[in-house]
Amino acid sequence: MKTYPRFAMNSVIPRREFLEKCSALALGIATAVPCFNGCAITGFSFYKIKSNDGKIILEVSQFPELNETGNGIQLDDENSNEEILLLKKSENEFIALSPVCTHLGCSVRRENSFFRCPCHGSTYSLDGKVIRGPAEKQLTIFHTEFSNGNITIYL
Ligand code: FES
Question: Whole-angstrom Cα distance, residue 23 to residue 4?
Answer without folding.
Answer: 20
